[in-house]
Amino acid sequence: MTLFTLNFGQECTSDSPWTYECRNEVCFKIDASTSKNEQMQLSTCKLTCGPHAALFPKPSVETILSKSTLPFLPSMMKNPSLSCTQKPCDIASLNWYVANAFNILRKDMEDVYQKLKKPDGEMRCQSSALGRRISTNLIIASDDTTLTLETDESYRLNVSTDSHADIEVQITAKTFFGARHAFETLSQLTEYDEINNSMQVLTSALILDKPAYPYRGVLLDTSRNYFSIESIIRLVNALSYTKMNTLHWHITDTHSFPIQIKSVPNMQKYGAYSHKKVYTHKDVRTIVEHGKLRGVRILAEFDQPAHCGEGWQWGPKTGLGDLAVCVNKQPWQKYCVEPPCGQLNPANQNIYPVLNKIYTEYFKLFNPDVFHAGGDEVHLGCWNTTEEIRVYVQKTYGDLSEKSFMKLWKDFLDKSSAEIVKANNNKDLPLIVWTSMMTSQKYLTDYLDKDKHIIQLWTTSKSEDMANVVRKGFRTIFSTYDTLYLDCGYGNWLTEGNNWCAPYKDWKLLYDNSPRQFLNKNFNITIDDKVKKSILGQEAAMWSEQVDDQAGDSKIWPRAAALGERLWTDPDHNWEQASTRMIHHRERMVDRGIPADALQPLWCDQNEKNCYYDPSINGHYADFSSRR
Amino acid sequence: MTLFTLNFGQECTSDSPWTYECRNEVCFKIDASTSKNEQMQLSTCKLTCGPHAALFPKPSVETILSKSTLPFLPSMMKNPSLSCTQKPCDIASLNWYVANAFNILRKDMEDVYQKLKKPDGEMRCQSSALGRRISTNLIIASDDTTLTLETDESYRLNVSTDSHADIEVQITAKTFFGARHAFETLSQLTEYDEINNSMQVLTSALILDKPAYPYRGVLLDTSRNYFSIESIIRLVNALSYTKMNTLHWHITDTHSFPIQIKSVPNMQKYGAYSHKKVYTHKDVRTIVEHGKLRGVRILAEFDQPAHCGEGWQWGPKTGLGDLAVCVNKQPWQKYCVEPPCGQLNPANQNIYPVLNKIYTEYFKLFNPDVFHAGGDEVHLGCWNTTEEIRVYVQKTYGDLSEKSFMKLWKDFLDKSSAEIVKANNNKDLPLIVWTSMMTSQKYLTDYLDKDKHIIQLWTTSKSEDMANVVRKGFRTIFSTYDTLYLDCGYGNWLTEGNNWCAPYKDWKLLYDNSPRQFLNKNFNITIDDKVKKSILGQEAAMWSEQVDDQAGDSKIWPRAAALGERLWTDPDHNWEQASTRMIHHRERMVDRGIPADALQPLWCDQNEKNCYYDPSINGHYADFSSRR
């Protein structure tokens, strides 16, 4: 240990008076002058301490990690060699994905290194890193590079050190997506080390791993507020760091229509917040392609028939009314759940050719394996106060009862679904719909088909309607608002007090949110293989009434990563066992350029297991008056 | 209006189908094809609509604004000419500040212009802006450039257009600080205009303005988590945009000691999170100097005798114990209010020479008009469980009663205060201390002196202790945690649930938080001139257990700006009348590079007065079940 000076002659040591020692899976900070061991940095300790060290999410099958590290430089990593076991195999295409994903891996490591490394004068400390070679060999079974709900994302990762102290990485996976997850895991077996002024990697590791759920997502709403392309790319990157595989893109809503529809230019002209706040086809392709290399499906939602307003104000107007009705109709409380109101007009058949054009461009851009058709918060009162629609419903269904308006809605669902299939070259595909009146026990099985519709549940985690959807055998994605809505707990944007789904959902709530557990516990549903298979996964939702790209990253991360481990590993334990790795994962995200929020003082990261609350101790915490 | 195409031949018009019209002080969005008027952009409408247009905070004395604008380019603004009425006047020194502050003003405008302007191909639309000259004349009474609690920050700003359609700006102020506020106001009389592809400024304006309170602050805690220099500079900038004048820098705490003390290098060596997370003297000077040009006092706090831990672990150890005791003592709940524990040891007289060195460097760096001496959350139980201190207290005060430990604390206060005065070249200056046991009714007047101590109140706004401090004639700064703590409402960082001061404090709560009002209403205190004068102002607090520079900006802004208007204008009305300007002020902050959080959908900015909640309307908002 040297004194705190920055001169070029100093030894290759840390400036810190502290060292770390791993005892009982905890990194202890101690005064280096009192230790007999060589000085160890926190990052090195974290890399070698505990059965899962710095891995997040925790691998689900098997993890064997060495306790020693070797220094290396990311730039010294050789391009990978690939073989494919499927015969025949389009290895050129597969290799394109693998090579690009590997470049991304190398760049993630290089970014961390560039951010943390010491100035040039201390480069000589890297001598032991400079000669180290890392070679990577992959065996991938299939050349299929389409991500679906059936894709096998498992992988086997083996790291070993040869007699020349070079590193060999062996990856086996069924698909490209499994191999990409192995890359992510490999990156988490490395850390920057200040003493060598280089990255370091574990000398050996064996990891067998696969996800518990096939759908692991985050929703981003770009209609209430706009998010830049750069911020969406960052979101894709961050998802991949936790092996999450879906960015559910809630592109449009009543507030704005920010996507280019080349065949209906009026949508963006009337609907975008400004001509700069539009996702062009080129932008979308950039995001979709980047997503694939990161193992992330870009799942586009076209929300309908409610949540349509801005963008729909142009003709062709007919005797049957506008394309969308109730658009910014006031007082809004009578016609929708938040301003501005707006719903498509199913009495005006001109909406279907427009929808077909939108769907057709969506399918070309996103090439989806499932399509999100929205369907939430249909307000029958909006339709029932629109004269043209009342006339149509009276004429078509005989009266103006709830049942007749539900028939109108079903008619819209059938016709719009037919246009979706048309846009998909007449091939069926699963449709995701939000929970709504239609998914309530009263209507569910008469209106929706469990072989065709996937239900995204945004009820509370205690809702009978939710349990009914599971019991009726529908495939489900859970986004229960009392546990997974990231927009909750901020100020009410319409009046005083905090917003409708307050309080704030802390990362621990997301971590512990296991539908397998709460369905069994709260509703006595047996989680057999059939039910297990029907629960596709979960999704944390960043609705954007009160966020845009200025603060989106820090509201989503690291909270969504807690959900990520729940979905990948589905551990038997709760958040407490994940806490140390979670805090460290947040630091890693920041080092990689994601402005994730801080969960604790950095002191807690540097003094593991010292930040806790023990209710059995008679103390002052949470006793506000004593904080004086 | 042209179609949505980006070709170089297009006319100098907007691509938008919408235009705005100001009716009854509200900017209405209407279809441009249905309007007889020339197309108007939202920014132009906001600049000319309503008695206070886009100004935030609202001027407090008089505001007369024209309804017409002229295009200009920031780069065409001439350097200001200055005269000084005081005789003699050090005009060279004064001019240095004025010229630099003017450059900052010009750069703020230029940054907005560069961010929003269209590409080079459309420069020809600027012809009418290119020739426009803006000249600025200032008359400042005094050459004093020290910001104190007595500084006159008032100003008079007059904007007029001469016969050549050039703009003349006339600023009169008592001090540089008033003139700087005038610059800020001037910048808020300008907006980018897409049609001319240039900035535009009001053709005439007359504003008389002065603050309601002399102390208008935000606290930043850099001990629990570190904030980069860049993020602190951004905070200073953002404060100045709302004419707030104090950055209360809570530099150190038990968690880390991130500032360089050249004469006691062990403080940072043992106390900083890393050698990169240290504020050097050079860094501090950069911040302090930038603060002055922005009209912002950098008020350093040295929190003591509690809140001392990391950094104090080195000798000289004596028979009287360590310099700081209970440092990370566990279980922490017995010795402090949050981990890690730590308090200075008043039984060890070696602490005073160390404190003197710290104070001396603080005074050199910050040149303070008031000094913040901390003093919160002293935990008598920590001292009372430290053997060396028990021996000392027993010997010195005769027993181990609360009273004796209070005497120990008083002894520390007296001795440390004497060292502070010594460090200030033996000149007295006011000391700010936090509310604590010492400021409770039981001890206040026996222990503290109203002519010497300013009390920063962090009780709730309903606390009897708070009212007592005011009644006893102390000068006060309000930071009531139930209304002004910006860290509240996130997850509990020690266990499940949300944090101790949850829920989240929305901007409306900060806006409406008027001590003059609640002291009168809740405690029947007459707000006469004496009481008025004793209330120096308020401060929003960004404690950093759960935030660092990744999300600090968006947690502070725009919420603290709401407090800014309360403190500058102290309007008779509540948040509702400020809402439109507040939302627009947030957009302005973002355009100037402050990642402030979004308060509403951008739709609400573009459709003024359409986002509201009327409880008298029988609707669905806040009826969660209906959101299905």
- In total, how many beta strands of chain A? 21
CATH superfamily of the largest domain in chain A: Glycosidases
Structural class by SSE content of chain A: alpha/beta
Task: Please report which band the strand proportion of chain A falls in: under 5%, 5-15%, 15-25%, 25-35%, 35-45% or over 45%.
Answer: 15-25%
Oligomer: homodimer
In which range does the helix fraction of chain A lie? 25-40%
What is the CA-CA span between the terminal residues of chain A? 41 Å
Largest interface: A-B, 99 and 99 residues
Strand order of the largest sheet of chain A: 12-13-14-17-18-19-20-21
Number of domains of chain A: 2
Q: Just give the CATH class of the largest domain in chain A.
A: Alpha Beta
| Count of runs of 4 or more consecutive helical residues of chain A | 21
Low-confidence stretches of chain A: 1-10, 621-628
Q: Quick one: overall form of chain A?
A: elongated
Would you tell me the overall average pLDDT of chain A?
94
Q: What is the secondary structure topology, with strand pairs?
A:
The structure is a homodimer of 628-residue chains.
Chain A: E1 18-23, E2 26-31, H1 42-48, E3 62-65, E4 69-72, E5 81-84, H2 91-116, H3 127-130, E6 134-140, E7 155-161, E8 167-173, H4 176-187, E9 190-193, E10 198-202, E11 205-209, E12 215-221, H5 229-241, E13 246-250, H6 266-271, H7 281-293, E14 297-304, E15 324-325, E16 343-344, H8 351-366, E17 371-374, H9 380-384, H10 387-397, H11 402-423, E18 431-434, H12 444-447, E19 453-457, H13 464-471, E20 475-478, H14 481-484, H15 507-511, H16 515-523, H17 529-534, E21 535-542, H18 552-556, H19 559-568, H20 579-591, H21 602-606
Parallel strand pairs in A: 5-6, 6-8, 12-13, 12-21, 13-14, 14-17, 17-18, 18-19, 19-20, 20-21
Antiparallel strand pairs in A: 1-2, 3-11, 4-10, 7-8, 7-11, 9-10, 15-16
Helix pairs in contact in A: 2-4, 5-7, 8-11
